[in-house]
Amino acid sequence: MSENENATPDADETPPVEASCSTDCFSENDPSIGTPRRNFVAEMMAAGVGALVGIVPATIGGLFFLDPLLRNGGKGEGDGFIETDLVLDALPADGTPVRYTVRDDLINAWNMFPDQPIGAAWLRRIQDQVLAFSTVCPHLGCDVEHRAGEGDFYCPCHTSAFDLDGKPLNAIPPRAMDTLEATVKDGRIWLKYETFRGATSEKVPV
Predict the structure, then answer these.
(1) What is the model's pLDDT at position 34?
(2) Would the pTM of this model clear 0.90, i.e. be above it?
C-alpha cells in the first residue's frame, strides 16, 4: 500500500456539512414555486365571475319589479298627457264637437296592454286652441251625446243637458261638464284624460 492510501485525515479538517435548504434553494423553473400565486389569481377570478353571475339576475329582477313605477304611460309626454292621432286641422273650424276615443297603454301590475281604449272626449276647435270635455255625465256617469239639431250636449239617462261650452241647461246635473286639459304641439293634439266623481257639485278626480 502506498503512503497516500494509509494516510488518515488531518484532525483539524472538518467534513463538509450540507446546508439546510429553504425555498431559495429551488430552481426558479420549479413549477411548485408559483402554485400559491396561481391559486390566488384563480380564486379571485372565480369570485369575480360568481359575483357577476349573482348581480346580473338581481339587477334584472329589481328592474322587473320596479317596471310599473318607471313607466309613464307609453305615449305620454309627461304629466299625464297623451299624444292623440289627431291634428288641429282635423277639427271643424266652426267649433262643432268631434267625439274622440282616447287610447293609451294600460298597465295592470307587471302586465302592459298597449294601445287600449280608456275613455272618450268631446273636442271642439276654438281658433288655434282645443276645448275638451269628458263624455261622462257628471250626474250619474252615463254617456253624454252631442245633438247637432239642438246645438247642445245631452245625457239620455236622466235628460241632463249642457250647452256647447259645457254649462248645464237644466237643474239635473250637479255641475258643468268636466273639462279635460288639451294642448296643441306641432299641430298635433295632446290630451290629459281623467275621470271624476259623479253626483257632486265639486270636480274631484278619481
Answers:
(1) 54
(2) no
